[in-house]
Fold this sequence. Notes:
By secondary structure, this protein is α/β, with parallel strands linked by helices. It is built from 10 helices and 11 strands.
Amino acid sequence: MLDCPPTNPPEGGHANISPGEMNISSSTHAPSSIAPNGSSRLGHPKAKAFDGQAAAAKASLRGAGMQNAGKPHKHTSTKTGMQKQPYSPSHVAAPAATAGKAKATAPHRRYAAGENPKPASPYSAYKLIGALAVAAALLLAITFALFAGSAAYSAPAASNENGEISAEPPSNSAHAAVEKDKNAGLPALKASGKNFVVCIDPGHGYDDPGAVCPDTIGDASEKDITLAAGLKLRDILIEAGISVILTRHDDIVPESLGGAGQYTLDPFERVDFVLAHPETDLFISLHCDAYAEDPSVGGTRIYIYEKAAAGTDYYAQTLSVSIGEALGANVPIISKDIYEAYYVTKKLPIPSALIEMGFITNPADAENLLSDAWREKFAMGVAAGIIEFINSTQ
């Protein structure tokens, strides 16, 4: 609300007249020309002066548009007696004069029941329009937020006992924002109509522990490290908008096979699993290496088949660069012939790579492999390489 100082009324405005200044009769009857004692005042000098002043006052009032001031009420005669004519807005109160000068007051209007004595202000309409506009804006914002939070995600959600898991929608916008900041180092996945599927193969598992070395990793084994890294990579890829399937998503022997001897997932079964999912675009297998003869040997390596499916070489290159940048290390690519190549890299019709994350026999590598923070960086590097490769095919 504006805090304005009081101002003087504009010239020509209504004057406020106090009751003490009203020395002109407010009676609606004409002034009498008969003195109180019954004698005529006509011809008396004072009476003539008074009548002259009255005539001047009336002339002044007529000039102000108040022709009816000072006129007598008309009466109508009925059988029951005299009755006043009903009030009309044209009837106004008699004016007052002060110090010999006539001052007119504003006409006083009587209002019927239910009639608003104040004229409608145009600002009332503006306020109503403004309130409606604000309400509409708030409703639009709420509607947009609800639809944005429940918008359909491009990749379908799926998970089953065979280890399949696909991209899932974020639970809410706040969770999505946190994950976006968390994966801020990843390149953006180019928008396309295709839903890319990556198969992650955590090496060994179940009754097959893989490589072990109590001196460096204690009771842990290769199957534990590869599963932890594989699940972390899965989460990152899903958040990036890529669908994922896994050859195994836990280390629990299926109940249907319990007590039937040792349960392992050999390379032939892994290849068959991928071939049973023809929608798969890329394959990556995670392992840990060991070389007890020389504990100084260490580092991350990428293995491919020299005559693998088209695109495999570039796939390995993007992985090598991105993992090397994430870990701050050189990641060599080792291409093997048909006699030495890993089975899973040479029997699939899609770009495939096997990564030896490190050597459990190397103390420094072993410490990294057991570190959740290091596995996070490793998974981020792998995910970045996968996204770069996918973007190159758009």
